[in-house]
């Protein structure tokens, strides 16, 4: 979705600059239907056009925005619903200056750890320093595209629920890269190549060494050891593994004693039987979890055995004689 | 009237050499602390005492470095030779710059001064007597010989071959500089055979096939002769097999022992050089040669995949020429190749995680020491916590053993041998050589046979050596402990003294 957001917003800006109205309208509608955050790019475009608008051209200026607005009407209610859900509480923390630093670090260096990230950092720092910044006034639009969405999101996040997250702002990356690689000096090309070579190696490493939990092994273990009278659940910790369980053919609902899951836990993709409020009445329950086993607690059951699969656990719980004191 | 004599070196070069001298000067007063250097000095000491290199004492480099260490005798003179060697290298580099940048004074200055600076500061360990710092003099001399021969002469190529060979007798990866020269000569000959070829070429380059074959022959002859001479010498000493194994064959698995894929790197080398040759008509001759030289020398420097900064000294001459090209008018393809080359160099630094030494702290520490604000102990400690211990152990050995008496140190501190001027029992000077070349049995039987008066166990070695433990338990007792290192004495010596 975020890559598609990147593509559609970049296309929107491309057609905007080429003054191709049809292309602009279609790509902008596609961007809006991909992710709400594309509204920030439209906002930048709107502001930029507003600078040059005259009385006699006012309606032709508004025309594309009117058509886009019209095409977006069917999605206004989902937007309202989503916004009200987010307002009621969201999992993101309030951003601060460090969050902004992390955002650029994630954009340019990537989130995974690789020794060549230092080379990329050096390359971008030098590209930044070597750039001829003298004519920056000619680049106001690109600067606005690169930074206004970040600034707006940052301030909106200070007011209510935070919506500041790197992947939502991914569409700010193209103008930032354009800024870095344009207005070069003789030595800039060295650092562009350094960044390209390093990123190729980092990406190669990233795609050939995926960080993937060994759920397949866990599922095989469960299938081999689970008897019909054993219960099987997903523990609701920092993360649940309901979708992996389904993918590997395990029926392991999430145990949520408090009643319901927050909407951002993927409830839109769950049905009723995916959530359990009461533990199954079984002598033994197998629990899929990525939490610390010592901190995994099931009322009326005690931890009997733990099987570790890298950062995943399959925990065996046994019913205690006196059951759960709370009933 | 007295006529003013013309100084034959430009003032800026004299200043550059003076700067290099000053930058290298503190290295003369450094303590014995650099392991490799101490191994060379120990082997040099062995050569002075008449031991056969490789046969009776082992290291894995060709012999010239050890002979130079033997000539110097101690660290001060080793580093002094290195200092003047470095100045001579800078001078030859300047002569080569004059050829690559004819009538371009600015580029000559930039390349020469950057080379003088980078080859002298601690960043690339220019002040440490490593093989790379010595071999580049011969590499530059070989290239200089090829490019500045005044006329077509087989002796030009013969002497160039000798220089490349001498470089290789310092360290095997120098062979890649020789290959770079061969590739360039071949391509130049290939092109000059074509009609309408207008790029300038060095005056000594042949244009007729017969001359070219003669040139190749003499270049190869010059390259092979010194190597053959060394083979003949070690054959006469009965150490040919050990020489071949240690200095040449063992290098291949040893050089790649730190991982990485030499095949992949070779693939990139072929790709880069192939592209440069393919686009050579859009690149000037000087830049083309420097690109080829740079690619091969960097391949040589990264052959082992080890992150020691002095390995990069091999690429330093070509790198400094490349840097200077940035200050010239470049065609688009030249700019592209230049940028890619420098990006590859920077990438190499990060990819192999080359160690970075502070270029300033050795000077700061030396100044504090020279102005007596640092005591000798504090100055020595700035080179590592074990330096003081090594000096104390060496002093102990000097006092308690005879000059020609061998000792054995279990650990990786060859500086104790070099400082005390005592030789090891067995062929190995450090524990990691015993482990890397599986010399446990050989060393144990040498210990059984020679029964050295003293064995030092540095207590920081984790490699298991049960035979040594057995020998120690059977024949030795603890004599003294210095800074955690155990000095063990042979029973009957202990009783006798």
List keywords for this structure.
heterodimer; A: 327 residues; alpha/beta; 2 domains; six-stranded mixed beta sheet; 10% strand; B: 497 residues; mainly alpha; Rossmann fold; 23 helices; 62% helix; globular
Question: What does the model show?
Answer:
The complex is a heterodimer of chains A (327) and B (497). Chain A has 327 residues and is of the alpha/beta class. Chain A is 50% helix and 10% strand. Chain A has 12 helices and 6 strands. Chain A has helices at residues 2-17, 21-34, 39-52, 58-72, 76-87, 97-108, 117-130, 140-159, 173-181, 188-208, 215-225, 242-247; strands at residues 230-235, 254-255, 275-276, 284-289, 301-309, 312-319. Chain B is mainly α and 497 residues long. The longest helix of chain B has 28 residues, at 209-236. In chain B, helix 13 runs antiparallel to helix 14 (316-325). Chain B has a 4-stranded mixed sheet. Classes of the chains: A alpha/beta (327), B mainly alpha (497).
Summarize the structure.
The complex is a heterodimer of chains A (327) and B (497). Chain A is of the alpha/beta class and 327 residues long.
Coarse morphology of chain B? globular
Low-confidence stretches of chain A: none
Strand order of the largest sheet of chain B: 1-2-4-3
Instruction: State the major sheet of chain A.
Output: 6 strands, mixed
Keywords (chain B): Membrane, Transmembrane, Transmembrane helix
Protein name (chain B): Glycosyltransferase RgtA/B/C/D-like domain-containing protein
Transmembrane segments (chain B): 7-25, 76-94, 106-124, 130-148, 155-170, 176-192, 213-235, 255-278, 287-305, 311-328, 335-356
């Amino acid at each position: 979705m975020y890559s598609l957001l990147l593509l559609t917003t970049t296309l929107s800006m491309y057609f905007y600059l080429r003054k191709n109205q049809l292309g602009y309208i279609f790509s902008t509608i596609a961007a809006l239907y991909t992710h709400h955050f594309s509204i920030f790019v439209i906002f930048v475009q709107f502001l930029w056009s507003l600078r040059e608008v005259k009385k006699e051209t006012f309606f032709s200026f508004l025309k594309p925005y009117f058509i886009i607005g019209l095409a977006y009407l069917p999605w206004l209610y989902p937007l309202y619903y989503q916004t009200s859900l987010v307002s009621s509480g969201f999992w993101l923390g309030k951003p601060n200056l460090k969050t902004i630093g992390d955002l650029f670090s994630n954009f340019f260096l990537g989130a995974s750890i690789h020794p060549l990230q230092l080379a990329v950092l050096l390359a971008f720092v030098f590209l930044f320093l070597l750039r001829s910044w003298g004519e920056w006034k000619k680049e106001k639009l690109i600067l606005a595209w690169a930074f206004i969405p970040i600034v707006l999101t940052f301030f909106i996040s200070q007011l209510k629920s935070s919506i500041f997250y790197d992947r939502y702002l991914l569409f700010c990356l193209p103008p930032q890269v354009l800024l870095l690689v344009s207005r070069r000096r003789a030595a800039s090309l060295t650092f562009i190549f350094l960044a390209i070579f390093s990123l190729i190696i980092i990406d190669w490493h990233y795609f050939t060494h995926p960080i993937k939990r060994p759920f397949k092994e866990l599922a095989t273990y469960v299938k081999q050891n689970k008897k019909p009278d054993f219960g099987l659940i997903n523990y609701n910790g920092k993360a649940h593994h309901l979708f992996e369980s389904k993918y590997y053919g395990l029926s392991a609902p999430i145990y949520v004693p408090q009643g319901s899951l927050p909407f951002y836990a993927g409830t839109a993709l769950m049905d009723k039987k995916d959530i359990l409020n009461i533990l199954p009445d079984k002598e033994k329950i197998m629990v899929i979890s990525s939490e610390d086993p010592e901190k995994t607690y099931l009322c009326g059951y005690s931890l009997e055995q733990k099987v570790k699969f890298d950062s995943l656990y399959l925990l065996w719980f046994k019913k205690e004689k006196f059951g759960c004191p709370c009933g | 009237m007295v006529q003013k004599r013309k100084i034959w070196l430009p003032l800026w070069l004299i200043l550059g050499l003076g700067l290099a001298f000053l930058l290298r000067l503190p290295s003369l007063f450094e303590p014995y602390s650099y392991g490799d250097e101490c191994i060379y000095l120990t082997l040099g000491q062995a050569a002075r005492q008449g031991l056969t290199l490789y046969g009776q004492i082992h290291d894995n480099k060709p012999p010239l470095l050890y002979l130079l260490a033997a000539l110097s005798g101690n660290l001060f003179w080793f580093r002094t030779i290195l200092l003047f060697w470095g100045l001579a290298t800078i001078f030859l580099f300047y002569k080569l710059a004059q050829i690559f940048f004819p009538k371009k004074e600015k580029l000559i200055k930039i390349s020469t001064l950057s080379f003088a600076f980078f080859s002298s500061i601690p960043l690339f360990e220019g002040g440490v007597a490593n093989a790379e710092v010595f071999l580049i003099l011969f590499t530059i001399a070989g290239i200089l010989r090829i490019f500045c021969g005044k006329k077509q002469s087989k002796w030009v190529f013969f002497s160039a071959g000798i220089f490349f060979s001498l470089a290789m007798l310092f360290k095997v990866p120098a062979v890649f500089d020789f290959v770079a020269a061969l590739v360039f000569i071949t391509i130049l000959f290939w092109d000059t055979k074509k009609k309408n070829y207008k790029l300038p070429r060095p005056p000594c380059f042949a244009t007729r096939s017969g001359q070219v074959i003669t040139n190749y022959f003499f270049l190869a002859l010059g390259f092979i002769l010194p190597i053959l001479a060394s083979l003949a010498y070690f054959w006469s000493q009965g150490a040919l097999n050990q020489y071949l194994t240690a200095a040449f064959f063992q290098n291949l698995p040893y050089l790649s022992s730190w991982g990485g894929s030499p095949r992949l790197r070779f693939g990139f080398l072929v790709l880069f050089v192939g592209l440069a040759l393919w686009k050579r008509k859009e690149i000037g001759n000087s830049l083309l040669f420097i690109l080829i030289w740079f690619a091969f020398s960097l391949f040589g420097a990264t052959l082992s995949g080890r992150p020691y900064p002095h390995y990069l000294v091999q690429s330093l001459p070509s790198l400094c020429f490349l840097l200077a090209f940035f200050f010239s008018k470049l065609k688009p393809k030249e700019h592209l190749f230049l940028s890619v080359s420098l990006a590859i160099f920077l990438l190499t630094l990060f990819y192999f995680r080359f160690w970075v030494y502070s270029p300033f702290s050795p000077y700061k520490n030396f100044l504090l020491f020279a102005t007596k604000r640092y005591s000798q102990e504090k100055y020595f400690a700035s080179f590592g916590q074990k330096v003081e211990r090594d000096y104390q152990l060496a002093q102990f050995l000097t006092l308690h053993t005879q000059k020609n008496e061998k000792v054995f140190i279990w650990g990786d501190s060859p500086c104790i041998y070099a400082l005390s001027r005592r030789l090891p029992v067995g062929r190995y000077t450090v524990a990691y050589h015993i482990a890397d070349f599986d010399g446990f049995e050989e060393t144990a039987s040498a210990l059984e046979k020679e029964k050295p008066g003293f064995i030092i166990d540095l207590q920081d070695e984790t490699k298991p050596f049960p035979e040594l433990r057995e020998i120690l338990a059977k024949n030795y007792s603890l004599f003294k402990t210095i800074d955690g290192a155990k000095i063990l004495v042979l029973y009957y010596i202990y009783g006798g003294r």
